[in-house]
Amino acid sequence: MLVDRLGFSAAIDYKRDDFLDQLRDHTPRYVDVFFDNVGGDILNQGITRLTRGARVVISGAISQYDNADEVMGPSNYLTLLYRSASMAGIAVPEFTDRYPKAMVDISDWLATGQLTSIEDTVQGDIETFPTTLRRLFTGKNTGKLVLELEH
To answer: Looking at the whole model, is its pTM more than 0.70?
Structure first.
């Protein structure tokens, strides 16, 4: 879907055991930007593929959200030093002043087909919420997960 429908040049499955092999296959010349929403071991493996001056963008860490023990951070962070790379977080609340413009732009992009929104909608009630939320951690959803409450 990422390649055929959304137009990406390649896609890899971070839940497969051969994630690093897939990443190597698709990044033979290393990467300039690694955008991470998973954290943990996936972030560690992504860091191994950085080119000189690369940037790592942390937008989330789904693999760590329900970690009851110790949250796993990058154990190979020295690669950032060796590759003169940087790592920074980005969080949507930092940009509240841009929300009105973003709503206009995103609406236009959706209307013109420049942006595609894929939603996985679950019909239910408030009791359905915990089961629906768990789908985020198991990969049982595709796109934005929405719980539509029945009236």
So the answer is: yes
Phi, psi of 25 (to 5 degrees): -60, -40
**Residue pair 37/15 in contact by the 8 Å Cβ criterion:** no
Furthest C-alpha separation in the chain: 56
Q: In the chain, where do the E strands start and end?
A: 31-36, 50-58, 86-89, 119-124, 144-149
Asked if 105 contacts 95 with a C-beta cutoff of 8 angstroms, the reply is: no
- pLDDT, tens only, 59-117: 999 888 877 788 888 999 999 999 999 999 999 999 999 999 999 999 999 999 999 99
Q: Contact 126/149 with Cβ under 8 angstroms? A: yes
Q: Which domains does the chain have, with CATH numbers?
A: 19-92 (3.40.50.720), 96-149 (no CATH)
